[in-house]
Structures are given as structure tokens and as C-alpha cells.
Write a structure and sequence with these properties.
The complex is a heterodimer. By secondary structure, chain A is α+β, with helices and mostly antiparallel strands. Helices cover 52% and strands 20% of the residues of chain A. Helices cover 48% and strands 17% of the residues of chain B. Chain B is elongated, with a radius of gyration of 26 Å. The chains are: A alpha+beta, B alpha/beta.
């Protein structure tokens, strides 16, 4: 049992785990509320029926008590008549000298509504006195009658019979009466001696009928009377019982204690209230059909169920609405979190709404994403800065070979007395270094960068003994723009090393700076042998060693440009074998003033 | 709209529709009253007065009280007038009675009229079946068997070697009387007992006939099948006995009244067959109400007793001979 319960709980958990929050909320709320509603409706209905039963039981008891009082009063009046006949008439009359007829007649006349006859019999069954009829039917044997035998057997008691047709006296009108006989043994005085006789008071049955008939026990309720052994004395359907068209549970009811009982008789649930009448041992039984009691409330019960059903439907809607109100913001938040997982750190897209808690959660996530984004930007900035520093440092390095060769050329010029050329070379080298330093700035005007390149070219041209020509052509607007320091010189260096080395005084390097829209372009073109396409691509990813040259790859130049100005800028290489190569620097067209305004130096 | 939503919406609509149908159905049932009564039932008697059948009437009254019926007794101006009963039957059917309970006059025409009326409303026959209308539910006593029992009782009490038996009171207008006679006739014929029949118009004529015939019937038998005439025949015998005239003929009969019971008790009448007429009345109305409630009506036969001076007050006989009529 316990394991089954646990299994059911596990299944329930699994069921709800596989459901959305909306269906879980709406389903569980609906189930709980509908069960609650039904329980309330059911308990109210049951309580209603129970209270109705209580009312009926009270009503039964009241009616039974009332009938009991009336019956008791009726029987006592019969007993009083019997006592009167016995103690005031029989006891006072000596049969030898007197007659019982006159006082008995008086008593009969006084109570004729309740009585059919009063008679006194001798112990051998002879009529001593009788009212209103006297002559016995010739066929009657009084000693054989039940009432006579009981009175003779138990002389100290009064005996009440069950209803029967009185069959003692000849009636000239041929009338037959249903009576209940009250008999007792009496002591008759005759000539001073005492002998036993029997006094019979036949009560008109209609008296009992009247007591029970007009009881208010609802449409189907009724009262019946039986003796101690369950023999029916009065029943509203007595004739039907006698004709076997109806039946009564009187034999079983005879065993009931006084009070209210529930019984099932002929598939019908009934409420029975029993009260025993003192002395006679008769039982008054009030009967009410439970079905009739409950049927009276069936409409209310059906109405309650109908209301409960409609309320359940309404609850389903309310639950759906509420669960939707609760679940929709949570679902939206879940989708937002999913998009964060996918890398979308736009905090404005995070859903904020719903109940206070969910709204707070949304705001918290939004704030968290905001912070996360800030932290990530910081990290990126740090990394970029670090990378910039590394690349700038690398860029700032002067190729030692270049320096050695330049100095060697100056020495050689000096030894050969070419002082003027040596001065030019030393001057150019000095300018080269001065621009390289540029007061520690990495962003310099294009004019400075081109001046740096010009000095470099002067030096290299001396070294390469004018193997190549060069030209530097720049728009005046382009010269005012900014560039990153030392990005043109490496390109020129590459052109010299890879393009001019094999030229036979016909090499040419053209440097051109110009604006196109908002962009600045610096082209370094040579007429060298060119680079195969695949090799040109490899130059940018750093996978191919540069061989000769400053050692600073094109990749670094592009990376520096993009670190400073963004991914949309950079370096491109256009090469055609045996025609030449053009390296094109793409920068934003920003003047030095504007750049400084946008990027103020840290204080 | 998703399929789930459509299904859900359909379910909700179905529930609302069911609730509405339930509510409307209940209020319609409440309006129509789903007739639990009172049922208007017309009881067509074949006599001039319903009081002549006090026990039947008591049964009818009890049933009308128990089953929430309102009963109208309609009697004939001329006893056994089938034409009048036909017109009354048609009138009650046309006047909107919920059912008709009829003690039919023995007539083929009436049988046809009953069949036609039964197509419009429940019709229940009591005491005897309508002639030529076999499908009509009938509540009656097995009068043929009652007649047989009565004749058997005559034979049991003994008849002389050359018996003189008079059978009187056969009413050709009453199916039950006819059946009673056939039962008596059947037993006598089987036992080769000769008997003669007397056709008398009424109780008065029966009394007169008894006064003239009884003194001549020594140890013979008079079987009187009419209740009223039985009382008159018994009274005639009692008077003859009182005046010391010979009246040795045994009297048997069918029917009950306090006077008959008294005569029985005095042994003036030897034995009587008594139908449980209370049951006939009660079950007649019950069958009619069942018919109104669309339950199929069936033929019902009630019991009877053969009572004599010795067993009048036995519990079984007492309850039929002395109906518990308030």
C-alpha cells in the first residue's frame, strides 16, 4: 500500500515535471479547487439531508408522543369506564338482590361514542348484564373467546385484544362492529358470596382510528399501532394489509427499542420512530420514507451540483487566466535567458513584467547582463590595449640590420669623402628616429608618417644605389588626417626587399595618400615581380615567414589598424605577378584635432 | 488556434450545453408537472348506485387516496343499459379524463366502444371483462371458479338421490354473473346433478318466489347467484322458520351484506361465496394509474372465500366479510 502510494507520488511528480509551468499551475489548481468545491457541495448536501432527517426524526417523535398521549388518554378513559363498572357498579351490587343493568346502561349512554358494548359474564360464560344488547348469538361460546380466556387466566390484569369483529350479541339491525376488547376478571357478589366473572368493555375501533388518522407526517408518512408481539391494531392501510395488497414491517418493528431507527423495507429506506404505550405494551410506530425526505431536497441538491459544475468550469477559465498571467512572464524571461546563453547580451531585450517577484527577477537578470557586458567590454578593452602595446612596441623596433647597414653606408661614404651624401643620410636617419619617437605618440599626422617614410626611402635609396625610384604623393587634406605611427614604412620596406631587389634601376615605388569620402587611403605600390595570390593571403595570417625585411608582418599592421579604428578598416594587398604589388592602408579620414577631441589623453 | 485549444473549447462548450440542457430540462419537467397526479379517473358503474358495491367503492377510495387520483363515480339511470354506458364512456373520453375504470355491462357493442376508447386513454375493466375486447386489462374474481366452488360445496354438504336444485339470479347483463353460473353449471353437469334455473327480475321478486317455493323444497337446494336476491331469499326462509313453516331447503349464494352475514351466522344460509371486492376496487384504480404512467396493464384476479356459519370469524374470512370500511 505504502509502496503503491509512493509510486503514485513519483508518477505524479514525473507527470508534472514533464508539463509546462502554466499547465502544472492550471491543472493542479483546477483539480484542487474542483475537489474542494465538490467536497463543499457534497458535505453541504449531506448536511442538508442530515438536518432534514433530524427534523423528520423530531417531527416523528413529536407526532408519536402526541398520538401516545391521545391513545393513553383514550385507553385510560376505557380503563376508567371498566373501573367505574367494576368498582362503582359490580362491587356495589349483590346480584341476588340487585341488577347491574341500570347503572351499566347509564355508563354506556355516557360513553356511547367510544363504546360498542359493556357486558358482565359469569365464569361459565353466561351473560349477567350487557349494554346495549343483551341476547347472545346462539352459536357463541363466550368461554372460547380469547378475551375471556385471558381474563380468566390472569385475573389481576386488564387485557386489551387486537381488533376483531364483535360477534357476541344478536343485533336486529344486523350490524357488525370492529372493536378492541378490554376484559378483566371481576368478583361478583351473589347472596353475599363472591364468585368470579369477566367484565368486557368493547371499544369502538373508530376511536383509535381517529387518534391516529389525522397525524401530520408529510405526504407519505403515517402512524400505525401494534401490540407487543407485532400484531397490527391500527394501520392506515389496514384493509390493504388484510388483503395483502400492502405489507408492513411490523414483526421486525416489534423488536425495536423506543426511539428512532433506520430500516430498509422492500428496498425502501425508512425512518421509524417507536414509542411503547404504558400498560398495554402496544407500540406506536411513525414511519417516514427517507426517499421522500431526500426527494424533497433533490432539486436543491441538483441545483447545488449544477452550480458546482458551472463554478468548476468558471474555475478552469480563471485558473487558465491566472496561470497564463503567472507563466507568460516566466516563459518570456526563460526565452531571454536562453538568448543570453546564445550570446545576446542586449539587456533591453530581457523581458521584465508579470508579478512583483518575476519582475524583480527580470530586472536582476537585466542588471546582471549589463554588468556582465561591462566586464566583458573591460576585458576586451584590456586585451586590445595590451595587444596595442605589444604591437606598438614591436612596430617601434628598428631593424638592426637596417641600422647597421645605414651606419655602415655612412662610414663608407665618409671614408670615400662623400660627405655631403653622408650628411644627408645622417640627417635622414636622425629625422627617422625623431619621427619614430614622436613624443611617445602612436597616432601621428599622415604628414609625419610620410615624412618618416621619405627619410627611410632616402636612406634606402643610398644603400641600394638608386636601384629604384620613388614618389610620395599626398592630397593636402589627407596630410592633415591621422594615421598610426610606422605602418607605411614596413610596407615600403617590403616593397624594397621583395620588389626592388631584383630590379635593375627601373624599380619604382609610389606612395599615395588620398581621401575618398570619409575614408583615408594610403597606397604603397611597386612594380616588382608581384606575389602569387595564395602567398598574399598567407602573409595576413602570419603562417608564411616574411624572410627578409623588418620582420613585422602585414598581419600586425592590419591588426593595429583594426585595434585602433575598428574592423571595417585595415590593410589590403593587390598583386599581379610581373606587374607589381599595391598595399593599401584604409583608415578613417579624421584630423588630428578631431581625433584628440574624440580620444582625449588620460589625465 | 491550436488543436488542443479547439478541443478544450469544444469540451467547455459541451459542458455548458449539458448544464443548460439539465437546467432547461428540469424547469420543463417542473412546468409540465411530470404528472404525478392528481389523475382524473372516471368510474363507470353498471348499477344505478355506487353504494350497492360498498366494498368496491372503499377499495377505489383508498386507491385514489394512495395514488393521488380524483375519482368521479358515474352511474346508469337504468341498470344494465349498455347504450347509456357507451355514451358515458365516450363522453368521459372526450371530456379529458386521464383514465376510465368501467364495470362493463355485458354487450358486444360496449366491447367495441371500450376498444375504441382504449386507443385514446387507459381503460380498465373491473368485476368482469368487456365482451369482445380481450386486450383490455381487467381486475376481477375468477367467477367461474367461484361458481364451481359454490357448487362443490353444495355437493359436499350432500344432496338427495333425486335432488331438486334451483339456480337463480343469473344476470345476462353481467359477465361475472354469467361466469358464476357457468361454474355452477359445470360442476352440476359433471356430477350429473339435475337443476333448474329461475329467471327473476329483482330481489323483491326473488323474495316472493322464495316464500312460495321454499316450503315445498324438502332438503333441497336453492343457489342464488345475485347478492340482493340472496338476502331476500334468506329473509324469506328466516320468516318461514319464524312462523313455523317448513323451510328445510339449504340456501347457497354469492355476494355479501351484513344481512347475508347475519343469515349465514344464523345458519339460514348455508354458505356464500364472497369475492374480495375491496381488492377489485383498489387494483382497478391502481391499474388505471399504471396505464396513465405508461405501464402495461395486465389482467388481475382477486381471491374469494366460501364462508359458512362456522368460519365467519376466522381471520381470513372476517377481513373479507367485514371490510374495514370507516
Amino acid at each position: 500500500m505504502k509502496s503503491r502510494l509512493l509510486q503514485a507520488v513519483r508518477r505524479g511528480k514525473l507527470f508534472f515535471r514533464q508539463r509546462s509551468i502554466q499547465s502544472t499551475i492550471s491543472l493542479s489548481f483546477t483539480v484542487v479547487m474542483v475537489i474542494g468545491l465538490m467536497l463543499v457541495a457534497g458535505s453541504l448536501s449531506l448536511r442538508y439531508v442530515d438536518s432534514a432527517k433530524d427534523i423528520i426524526a423530531e417531527s416523528n417523535t413529536r407526532v408519536v408522543d402526541q398520538v401516545g398521549l391521545n391513545l393513553d388518554s383514550y385507553l385510560r378513559s376505557m380503563m376508567r369506564i371498566s373501573d367505574s363498572v367494576y368498582y362503582r357498579v359490580i362491587k356495589n351490587v349483590d346480584l341476588k338482590t340487585g341488577s347491574l343493568s341500570e347503572p351499566m346502561s347509564l355508563l354506556y349512554e355516557t360513553n356511547r361514542d367510544q363504546l360498542v358494548s359493556i357486558a358482565v359474564f359469569s365464569s361459565d360464560g353466561k351473560v349477567i348484564a350487557a349494554e346495549p344488547l343483551f341476547q347472545l348469538k346462539p352459536t357463541v361460546r363466550v368461554q372460547n373467546q380469547d378475551w375471556f380466556k385471558k381474563a380468566a387466566a390472569k385475573i389481576e390484569n386488564l387485557h386489551f385484544s387486537t381488533p376483531h369483529v364483535e360477534d357476541l350479541f344478536l343485533d336486529p339491525d344486523n350490524k357488525y362492529h370492529w372493536v378492541v376488547s378490554l376484559s378483566r376478571s371481576v368478583e361478583l357478589t351473589e347472596g353475599g358470596s363472591i364468585k368470579h366473572g369477566v367484565l368486557l368493555v368493547d371499544m369502538n375501533f373508530s376511536g383509535i382510528e381517529r387518534i391516529c388518522k389525522n397525524t401530520d407526517l408529510g405526504a407519505s408518512g403515517y402512524v400505525y399501532i401494534m401490540d407487543g408481539s407485532g400484531e397490527i391494531i391500527y394501520h392506515p392501510k389496514q384493509e390493504l394489509l388484510y388483503s395483502r395488497l400492502a405489507s408492513e414491517n411490523n414483526r421486525a418493528a416489534a423488536g425495536y427499542e423506543d426511539g428512532t431507527h433506520l430500516e430498509t423495507f422492500e428496498n425502501e429506506q425508512r425512518m421509524i420512530t417507536v414509542k411503547t404505550v404504558g400498560y398495554t405494551g402496544w407500540k406506536i410506530v411513525a414511519v417516514n420514507s427517507i426517499q421522500d425526505v431526500t426527494a424533497a431536497y433533490a432539486q436543491i441538491r441538483q441545483f447545488t451540483l449544477l452550480v458546482a459544475g458551472l463554478a468548476s468550469i468558471l474555475l478552469v477559465f480563471v485558473n487558465l487566466f491566472l496561470s497564463r498571467r503567472i507563466a507568460t512572464p516566466i516563459k518570456a524571461l526563460e526565452r531571454s535567458v536562453k538568448s543570453i546563453e546564445d550570446g545576446d547580451l542586449d539587456e533591453t531585450k530581457i523581458a521584465v513584467g508579470g508579478s512583483y517577484e518575476v519582475e524583480h527577477l527580470g530586472n536582476a537578470i537585466r542588471s546582471m547582463v549589463q554588468k556582465m557586458r561591462g566586464l566583458m567590454a573591460d576585458i576586451v578593452r584590456e586585451q586590445e590595449s595590451k595587444r596595442k602595446s605589444e604591437l606598438d612596441a614591436l612596430q617601434a623596433q628598428i631593424n638592426p640590420h637596417f641600422l647597421y647597414n645605414t651606419l655602415d653606408s655612412i662610414v663608407w661614404m665618409t671614408e670615400k669623402g662623400q660627405y655631403r651624401d653622408a650628411v644627408v643620410m645622417v640627417t635622414s636617419l636622425a629625422k627617422l628616429f625623431r619621427i619614430s619617437l614622436s613624443k611617445g605618440r602612436n597616432i601621428i599626422p599622415v604628414s609625419a608618417e610620410l615624412e618618416h617614410v621619405r627619410n627611410y626611402l632616402i636612406i634606402q635609396n643610398y644603400r641600394y644605389k638608386n636601384k629604384f625610384r620613388y614618389s610620395i604623393d599626398a592630397q593636402p587634406e589627407a596630410l592633415r588626417c591621422v594615421t598610426i605611427k610606422l605602418i607605411v614604412q614596413p610596407l615600403v620596406e617590403n616593397s624594397i626587399y621583395h620588389g626592388m631587389e631584383y630590379m635593375d634601376n627601373d624599380g619604382e615605388i609610389k606612395i599615395r595618400a588620398y581621401l575618398k569620402g570619409d575614408d583615408l587611403f594610403i597606397d604603397v605600390a611597386d612594380n616588382g615581380p608581384g606575389i602569387p595570390e595564395e602567398r598574399a593571403a598567407a602573409l595576413f595570417d602570419g603562417s608564411t615567414p616574411t624572410g627578409k625585411g623588418s620582420g613585422i608582418g602585414l598581419k600586425n599592421i592590419r591588426e593595429r589598424i583594426q585595434l585602433y579604428f575598428g574592423k571595417q578598416y585595415g590593410l589590403s594587398l593587390f598583386s599581379e605577378p610581373d606587374v607589381g604589388t599595391t598595399a593599401q592602408i584604409h583608415l578613417p579620414a579624421v584630423t588630428m584635432e578631431e581625433f584628440e577631441r574624440r580620444n582625449p589623453p588620460p589625465k | 488556434m491550436t488543436v488542443k485549444k479547439k478541443v478544450f473549447l469544444a469540451l467547455v462548450l459541451a459542458l455548458l450545453a449539458a448544464a443548460a440542457v439539465l437546467a432547461v430540462g428540469r424547469s420543463a419537467a417542473a412546468r409540465s408537472g411530470a404528472k404525478d397526479g392528481p389523475y382524473e379517473i372516471s368510474v363507470l358503474c353498471r348499477e344505478r348506485s355506487a353504494e350497492s358495491r360498498a366494498a368496491v367503492k372503499a377499495g377505489i377510495d383508498q386507491a385514489s387516496n394512495d395514488l393521488n387520483a380524483e375519482v368521479s363515480y358515474i352511474t346508469l339511470s337504468h341498470e344494465g343499459d349498455d347504450a347509456e354506458q357507451i355514451s358515458l364512456l365516450e363522453r368521459e373520453a372526450a371530456n379529458g379524463a386521464d383514465a376510465v375504470v368501467i364495470a362493463p355491462v355485458r354487450s358486444a357493442k360496449l366491447g367495441q366502444a371500450v376498444k375504441e376508447a382504449a386507443q385514446k386513454l387507459p381503460v380498465v375493466a373491473i368485476l368482469s371483462a368487456p365482451e369482445g375486447a380481450p386486450g383490455i386489462p381487467t381486475v376481477s374474481c375468477d367467477d367461474f371458479r367461484l361458481g364451481q366452488s359454490l357448487a362443490e360445496r353444495v355437493l359436499k354438504d350432500g344432496v338427495s338421490a333425486d335432488p331438486k336444485i334451483i339456480v337463480s339470479g343469473v344476470n345476462p347483463k353481467c359477465g361475472d354473473s354469467e361466469n358464476l353460473y357457468r361454474g355452477v353449471q359445470d360442476v352440476f353437469k359433471r356430477n350429473k346433478i339435475p337443476f333448474s334455473t329461475l329467471q327473476l327480475r329483482d330481489a323483491q321478486e326473488a323474495g316472493a318466489a322464495a316464500r312460495s317455493l321454499l316450503p315445498g323444497l324438502k332438503n333441497e337446494v336453492w343457489v342464488e347467484l345475485d347478492g340482493g336476491a340472496l338476502e331476500a331469499v334468506g329473509q324469506a326462509k328466516r320468516e318461514l322458520l319464524k312462523t313455523g313453516q317448513p323451510a328445510d331447503a339449504r340456501i347457497y349464494g354469492a355476494g355479501r351484506s351484513d344481512a347475508v352475514t347475519s343469515l349465514l351466522e344464523e345458519r339460514v344460509i348455508s354458505a356464500v361465496g364472497v369475492r374480495n371486492e375491496y381488492n377489485i376496487g383498489y387494483l382497478g384504480i391502481k391499474t388505471a394509474v399504471d396505464g396513465i404512467r405508461r405501464k402495461k396493464g395486465e389482467n388481475v384476479q382477486v381471491n374469494f372465500i366460501i364462508a359458512d356459519g362456522t368460519n365467519l370469524y376466522s381471520p381470513e374470512n372476517e377481513r373479507i366479510l367485514f371490510p374495514f370500511v370507516s
